[in-house]
Design a protein that fits this description.
The protein is built from 32 helices and 21 strands. It is α/β, with parallel strands linked by helices. A 7-stranded mixed β-sheet has the order 12-11-10-13-17-15-18, sandwiched between helices. Strands 2-1-3-4 form a 4-stranded parallel β-sheet, with helices on both faces. A 3-stranded mixed β-sheet has the order 5-6-9, with no helix packed on it. It is globular, with a radius of gyration of 36 Å.
Length: 1009
């Protein structure tokens, strides 16, 4: 405390300009351990780094005040809202780009303390803070006018009146003269039923009833203050609202018997009239009362209105008509290719297979379900209570394996900070398959609201460790009493919520999800996933997956589809037990669970609101592993007896929808590979896919734009980019899908082992493997403990096994090592308040090893990039080179254009005609995803986003130009596979060049080697 009173620091988390201003004002400080009291947040700062800095500043003894920019506080709002310590004080400040908004400030929006809390803090002993005055003594009961007078309760009306009432309750005295007579209470109307007064003395006990009790108001005793949260009698509510010119309507609350429970106590609030939830902000830590209104879902609560966008229906109908005409033309006019008809048929069949995935997606667009836009269930503000049949018991399960404690802390803290409706209980279960003692110790500090589950014995040949981990907690820890009993014995109010280890729930998660479960027929509610570490403009791997969350699942929900994506969902325990808990026979348990629930005749809903935020893998290796796991899991189900095609309990529509999730992988692989080589074959081998003509030009001019419009349809302009990113990612990840399908087929044939579940590393590769070992080595060295140093008691503490290789590499003699490069100088602020630069220092051995490992990992990543995107880019580049060679060889560039007839000669047969122009434009279009993929490795910031925006527009222009070029085919008859193919001309040119080089080489003398 002495340090807090003298020489305490002000910590700042803000943008660069704000930090600079505070540093120039002399706020900055760097201690002997190189710890600063500020964090500069820019575009490269991760949410995890901001959370770590905030937790560090709020836990330091030398920090008295923490200033955080409000936009940055919104990034970690769940952590900021959980801070409830008086020291250090937390203040949110504006930034250079955003003004201060009091409605977002956690300090202003958090629950106001109950009356008497401030008095309890100041009642005795020294004040907690210098600026909190000591509470003056309360007058005796005989002098206190409130002891016998019915002081009117403050109304839940205008905000200013509300705040004044709360302030008065906190101070313990009414505003104005505390010893003046209170204003008389308005008499109740004749025949009105009065509220019971639990505080009034009973006549049977020998005491006289307080005057306030006769008027129908509870007279506060010596130890009870006016309660600002208690409801007023109906006549006073109408009177006070009428004073402010406001009408009174109370939807969603029914007066009467609230039920015989701990909240209502079996007492009714009165007969006749409507009860009212106030229009003021709700509070989740309000005092509990003897009388509560029974809350019921109002209009729209838990409902999902269906929408039918007319534009989507119009595009679909036009696309279906154009598709029918196009297929007719392709089958009757474009396959007369002589001896190369087989090639045209191959391309035509590929188009047909691609349509089998496009049509189901198109059928999802004209109809969709969206949330009703309600606020969800009410928070526990002390005035309402849910009916007995809706007082859920929520079990939040967080499965983890080797995730760091920082990641787990973020998820657990957010889940426990989520608001809970009245009468709903919540317990968090951390299901740790890694048996981490640090995580167990952390959970132990959270009290009864959190439990730690570990020690599971893994079965031989286990396929899905996540499902087995969750099932262990559900069967053996949470619901062991229902073992061997029918699932119907489990109450319908028992709910299970699953969060991945890196998913942080928003505060209204439970309010929204539980409202969707108000309907007893609903067994599962799924919410989408949002990611804090992905920039939408550079999301070339489609991690955000906007097309899936915003268009596929709303359409599927309208068709009665049940979807589960493994996290951010809530399911009734009864329904989960009905299907045998989480499936363990596949590595995609979410996809399997969806089908099992639908086959069991259950109902699920999709709530299209982003209620949880996590992190997505951004390293290419981790992205490929994740998508490979998804592909393998779908293939495991598709090629088994549990395939949706073989499930007789699934309706025909849902057979198609569940099968399409797997079938799309096959069509993506086939169409990408075939369409990648179509322009290559045309430009290199002269092998064309169709016989161009008037009919094909007309059909393609109708079909291709409508196909593009259907696949890029968006209800709002900001979604257009996400639709395009989905197509880019499919092109990039084609080889990943193909490898996963091949491995699955080999495992089914017994050649390879069955794929197992592996958690996706989302830390960029630095938190696991050798880099993680190096970081641990550096942390131990920084704390004063070197590997191999003597431990207390004289025993030598050797390095831990993960650090053994790193420690040996750092200590091994390597001869005279080169001088390590110095680190960049850092600008810090000294004790005098002046900024100065730290001198550069050489790298430590651990830092040298870390830099070498990073360089090695970067080289491996580049090799992986070349292996993944290299073939596609190479094929497109070769096709373009052959096309340019053909154009130059044809003499099209040498034609002198002086009239329109001269201009048309450029596009005649043998020059820049449709057989050259369209394949070249197609090859350019195919090169866009590989180019973005390579740029991603070297720059993930503004350059990538700008290039993606440019190529999106450029690709659209290429497609339009290619469609217009099709009409050139009317003037040029089909030539088939030309005899003078470009590859032959290139080979002859190379052969002649080699012959000339050999002829010009000087003859070697006899006997020369």
């Amino acid at each position: 405390m002495a340090q807090q009173q003298e020489g305490a620091l002000v910590a700042v988390i803000a943008d660069e300009d704000t930090i600079t201003g505070f540093l120039l004002a002399g706020v900055g400080d760097v201690d002997l351990r190189k710890r600063s009291n500020f964090l500069v947040v820019d575009g490269k700062t991760t949410v995890r780094a901001v959370e770590a800095a905030f937790r560090d500043f709020t836990s330091r003894d030398d920090v008295a005040i923490v200033l955080i920019s409000q936009p940055i506080a919104n990034m970690i709002r769940h952590v900021v809202a959980a801070h409830n310590k008086p020291v250090p004080a937390l203040l949110e400040i504006p930034s250079k780009d955003a003004p201060y908004d009091p409605n977002q400030d956690s300090l202003l929006t958090r629950p106001t303390p109950r009356a008497g809390v401030g008095r309890a803090l100041r009642a005795s002993g020294p004040p907690l803070l210098p600026f909190l005055p000591r509470r003056r003594p309360r007058p005796p009961a005989a002098m206190d006018p409130r002891a016998g007078g019915g002081y009117p309760r403050p109304a839940y009306g205008a905000p200013e009146q509300q705040h004044a009432a709360l302030d008065a309750a906190e101070e313990g005295l009414p505003r104005g003269d505390p010893f003046s007579a209170p204003p008389p209470a308005p008499p109740p109307p004749a025949g009105a039923q009065l509220f019971a007064n639990p505080f009034a003395p009973s006549d049977d006990a020998g005491g006289a009833a307080a005057p306030g009790a006769a008027a129908g108001y509870p007279a506060p005793s010596e130890h009870a203050l006016p309660d600002p949260f208690a409801p007023l009698p109906p006549w006073q509510q109408h009177a006070q609202h009428a004073q402010h010119g406001r009408s009174v309507s109370y939807p969603g609350v029914a007066l009467g018997d609230a039920g015989d429970d701990a909240f209502g106590g079996g007492h009714g609030l009165g007969a006749g009239g409507a009860g009212a939830p106030d229009t003021a902000p709700q509070r989740d830590a309000a005092p509990r009362h003897e009388h509560r209104a029974s809350w019921s879902a109002g209009a729209g609560g838990g409902q999902y209105p269906a929408i039918a966008p007319p534009l989507a229906a119009l595009i679909l109908l036009a696309f279906l008509a154009a598709t029918g005409f196009y297929l007719y033309v392709r089958a009757t006019f474009t396959l007369a290719m002589g001896g190369h008809t087989w090639y045209g048929v191959l391309v035509f069949v590929t188009e047909l297979l691609g349509l089998t995935s496009v049509l189901p997606y198109g059928l999802l667009l004209p109809v969709a379900t969206l949330p009703a836009g309600t606020r969800g269930l009410p928070v526990d503000d002390g005035r309402v209570v849910l009916p007995p049949g809706k007082r859920f018991r929520v079990h939040i399960l967080v499965p983890c394996y080797k995730e760091s404690l920082a990641v787990i802390t973020n998820t657990v803290t957010a889940a426990l900070a989520a608001e809970v409706p009245p009468g709903v209980s919540r317990t968090l279960w951390l299901c740790d398959d890694g048996k981490d003692a640090a995580k167990a110790a952390f959970i132990a500090t959270l009290g009864d609201d959190a439990r730690y589950v570990s020690g599971r014995v893994r079965a031989p040949g286990e396929i899905n460790g996540k499902s087995a981990n969750l099932n262990n907690a559900l069967r053996n820890v949470i619901f062991p009493a229902y073992a061997g009993r029918p699932p119907s014995d489990i109450p319908g109010t028992e709910l299970v919520v699953v969060f991945d280890a890196d998913m942080a729930a928003r505060r209204n998660f439970l309010l929204k999800v539980l409202e969707a479960l108000w309907d007893d027929r609903v067994s599962l509610v799924l919410t989408p996933q949002a990611f804090s570490n992905i920039a939408p403009g550079g999301d070339i791997f489609n991690n955000i997956n906007q097309q899936f969350w915003e268009y596929v699942l709303p359409g599927c929900d309208a068709w009665g589809y049940i979807a589960c994506t493994g996290t951010n969902f809530c399911i009734r325990a009864r329904a989960l037990a009905t299907v045998g808990w989480f499936p363990e026979y596949t590595i995609t348990e979410d996809y399997a669970l969806s089908m099992e629930l639908k086959a069991a005749g259950l109902k699920g809903r999709y709530l299209a609101e982003y209620l949880a935020v996590g992190e997505a893998p951004d390293e290419v290796r981790n992205v490929c592993r994740q998508r490979s796991r998804w592909t393998k899991g779908h293939m495991q189900i598709f090629f088994s007896r549990r395939s949706p095609l073989l499930n007789g309990r699934l309706p025909l529509v849902h057979k198609m929808l569940y099968t399409n999730g797997t079938w799309a992988y096959f069509t993506t692989i086939l169409t990408t590979l075939v369409f990648l080589f179509v322009p290559f074959n045309s430009l290199v081998f002269g092998l064309h896919p169709v016989a161009f003509g008037r009919e094909f030009a007309l059909a393609a001019s109708l079909y291709l734009p409508l196909n593009f419009a259907l696949m890029n349809y968006a209800r709002t302009p900001r979604h257009v980019r996400g639709q395009w990113m989905a197509q880019v990612s499919n092109h990039i990840l084609t080889f990943t899908y193909m490898k996963a399908v091949a491995n699955t087929l080999l495992s089914l044939a017994g050649v390879k082992a069955t794929a197992g579940f592996k958690a996706t590393d989302k830390s960029g590769g630095d938190a696991a493997g050798p880099l993680g070992a190096i970081k641990s080595l550096m942390n131990r060295a920084g704390s004063g403990g070197a590997p191999g140093a003597a431990a207390p008691g004289g025993a030598a503490a050797g390095p831990a096994p993960p650090l053994a290789a790193a420690a040996a590499a750092a200590a091994a003699p390597r001869g005279p090592p080169p001088r390590p490069p110095p680190m960049a100088s850092k600008l810090v602020v000294g004790g005098d308040g002046r900024p100065y630069a730290l001198p550069p220092r050489p790298l430590t051995p651990a830092e040298v090893i870390q830099a070498q490992l990073r360089a090695r990992g970067a080289r491996a990543a580049r090799r992986a990039a070349a292996a993944a995107a290299g073939p596609g880019l190479s094929v497109s580049a070769a096709a373009l080179a052959a096309g340019v060679f053909s154009v130059v060889r044809s003499g099209a560039l040498a034609v002198r254009v002086s009239s329109w007839s001269d201009f048309t000669q450029v596009f005649t047969s043998g020059r820049l005609d449709v057989y050259l122009l369209v394949p070249m434009l197609w090859a350019l279009y195919n090169a866009i995803p590989p180019v973005l993929f390579f740029v991603y490795f070297f720059h993930k910031g503004r350059l990538l986003r700008a290039l993606a925006s440019f190529l999106r527009v450029f690709g659209t222009l290429l497609a339009l130009l290619a469609i217009g070029s099709l009409w050139l085919g009317m003037a040029v008859p089909y030539r088939g596979a030309v005899g003078d193919a470009p590859i032959k001309a290139i080979s002859s040119s190379l052969g002649s060049a080699i012959s000339k080089a050999r002829a010009n080489m000087p003859a070697l003398p006899p006997g020369a080697p």
